[in-house]
């Protein structure tokens, strides 16, 4: 019997993610197991560069534990791709970030793309990430619903209506040929946006980063591909004062 491909999603926050489990379960298919883990140590949500920095130690511990437990690939579920390069140095299995993969997908399907997200304060992070990934010319900007990550689930209808309107603005006012959901908390919102635009005569790709990236991670495993050891030289994990990367207190919780 062929072993199932095990994909572990690292969501680099400490918030309770139980309400996302049904959507994560839908990413599983025959021969593919997908599980999501969050951090024991780290920020409640990621809405700044400070939050990103505070997430990385817990992410490293979670990545090392997941690799040891038999994961075949890791997916970082945050649109700033925090810790991506560090995790690639720490583990041998493929590590992919939702921002890098979703931008590549949007740039493949359209000449330009925009992002709808939660807060305008993260716009500089998204712009810098687009430039870092090589898509500065294709990126036309972002629009935000101005609802904090921790309130997204509670205000779901308000969030969805805002995303629909803002995606339309990106297409009509900024010339976006594709739209990306710019926060992991927006998982599952792409379909309605796509329908909203289609009703107005716009057949525009709307990329939901997490399922897109999970599918890409599965492809990497199937093809026997991982990140380059030339670009990401393996790091010898040493003793870090105050950071016990291999211990449970710095690790992750599974949902």
How would you sum up this structure, described in words?
Pfam families: Asp_Glu_race. InterPro entries: Asp/Glu/hydantoin_racemase, Hydantoin_racemase-like, Iso_Racemase_Enz_sf. Belongs to the HyuE racemase family. It comes from Aspergillus japonicus CBS 114.51. This is Hydantoin racemase. The protein has 255 residues and is of the alpha/beta class. Helices cover 38% and strands 16% of the residues. It has helices at residues 21-25, 49-68, 84-90, 98-109, 123-132, 156-174, 190-198, 209-223; strands at residues 5-11, 32-39, 73-76, 95-97, 113-117, 139-144, 178-181, 206-207, 252-254. The protein has a five-stranded mixed β-sheet with strand order 4-3-1-2-9, sandwiched between helices. 47% of the residues are buried. The model has no long low-confidence stretch (mean pLDDT 93).
Major β-sheet strand ordering: 4-3-1-2-9
The description of the largest β-sheet is: 5 strands, mixed
Proportion in helices: 25-40%
Using the alpha-carbon principal axes, give the shape: globular
Strand coverage percent:
15-25%
Radius of gyration: 18 Å
Give the count of helical stretches.
8
- Classify the secondary structure makeup into a structural class: alpha/beta
**Count of DSSP strands:** 9
CA distance, first residue to last residue: 27 Å
Poorly predicted runs of 5 or more residues: none
**Average pLDDT over all residues:** 93
């Amino acid at each position: 019997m062929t072993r199932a491909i095990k994909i572990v999603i690292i969501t680099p926050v400490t918030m309770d993610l139980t309400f996302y489990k049904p959507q994560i379960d839908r990413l599983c298919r025959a021969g593919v197991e997908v599980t999501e883990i969050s951090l024991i140590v780290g920020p409640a949500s990621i809405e700044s560069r400070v939050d990103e920095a505070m997430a990385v130690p817990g992410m490293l511990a979670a990545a090392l534990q997941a690799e040891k437990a038999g994961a075949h690939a890791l997916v970082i579920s945050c649109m700033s791709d925090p810790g991506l390069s560090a995790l690639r140095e720490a583990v041998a299995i493929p590590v992919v970030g939702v921002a890098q993969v979703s931008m590549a997908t949007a740039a493949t399907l359209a000449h330009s793309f925009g992002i709808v997200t939660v807060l305008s304060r993260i716009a500089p992070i998204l712009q810098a990430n687009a430039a870092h990934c090589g898509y500065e010319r294709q990126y036309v900007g972002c629009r935000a619903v101005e609802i904090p990550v921790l309130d997204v689930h509670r205000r779901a209808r308000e969030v969805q209506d805002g995303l629909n309107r803002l995606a339309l603005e990106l297409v009509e006012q900024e010339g976006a040929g594709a739209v990306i959901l710019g926060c992991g908390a927006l998982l599952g919102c792409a379909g309605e946006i796509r329908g909203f635009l289609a009703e107005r005569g716009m057949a525009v790709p709307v990329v939901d980063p997490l399922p897109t990236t999970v599918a890409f991670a599965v492809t990497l495993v199937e093809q026997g591909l991982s990140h380059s050891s030339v670009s990401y030289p393996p790091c010898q994990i040493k003793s870090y004062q105050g950071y016990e990367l291999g211990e449970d207190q710095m690790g992750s919780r599974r949902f």
